[in-house]
Amino acid sequence: MHYGSVTALENVSFRANAGEILGLLGPNGAGKTTAMRILTTYLYPSSGTAKVDGFDILEAPIEVRRRIGYLPETVPLYTDMRVDEYLTFVGKARSLEGAKLAERLEKVREACRLKPVWKHLLGELSKGFGQRVGLAQALIHDPKVLILDEPTSGLDPIQIIEIRALVKSLAKEKTIIFSTHILQEVEALADRIVIINEGKLVAQGTRRELAEKVPDPGKSPQDLTLEEIFIGLLKPQKAVS
To answer: What SS3 state is found at 205?
Structure first.
């Protein structure tokens, strides 16, 4: 993906498997959000493509959107609407109606634990409840794939724990891709990790597989912390740039 003379992503390829939580890890400005916007068909890539559940993002963008639930870093909430009104609106936009819409509203209300604020204005919600509503709108149409951009950004420690637990519970039925620059989030959530830096793929694999790729670690792979793995893998990338 190019923005004028700036290359935001270059030859970044990875796969997220069914029922897996994949963490997209990298420093701020690494290209994580750009990758997610391409996967959700929000951005048209300069070259290359991607497939979601077998559908090409360029050839079948509507089919891709039907299969994706997306939570951007800034949650798209209409602050003058109530929680129930907003999720009803999103459900109808996703072609839900009647009994099916009512079923899905009840499902996301329970899954995201929104009952205490169900009739509250969105503008009155805490950041934590706002994130839960954001997850609910991403889930309303029961997508196969969830794409979450910095899902715990700006939350306090208790809210972070709650959102982590919610994401883990959703992984039983969904494929989840989430981006973060926070190592603890990857440690707590990800089955596999994709590290990108300066728009390029640095490494991908399980935590153990990444540890084994660190050059000259000075200790055995199982003894490396995720911070040591991350820094060790980024060093060669920085040396080349």
So the answer is: strand
Please name the residue ranges forming H helices in the chain: 32-39, 61-67, 83-93, 98-111, 127-139, 157-170, 183-189, 207-211, 226-240
- For the cut 90, the answer to whether the pLDDT of residue 219 exceeds it is no
CB 65 within 8 A of CB 147: no
Determine the Cα–Cα distance for residues 215 and 207; give it in Å rounded to an integer: 15
Beta-bridge partners for 22 = 177, 192
CATH 2.60.120.10 fits 2-76+144-205, yes or no: no
| All residues at 6 or more sequence positions from 44 whose CB lies less than 8 Å from its CB, including other chains | 38, 58
CB–CB of 41/64 below 8 Å?
yes
Nearest to 26 by CA among 240, 237, 239: 237
Q: Could you report the per-residue pLDDT of 154-181, keeping only the tens digit for each?
A: 888 888 888 898 888 888 889 999 999 8
The enclosing H or E element of 3 equals strand 2-3
DSSP-derived 3-state class of residue 94: coil
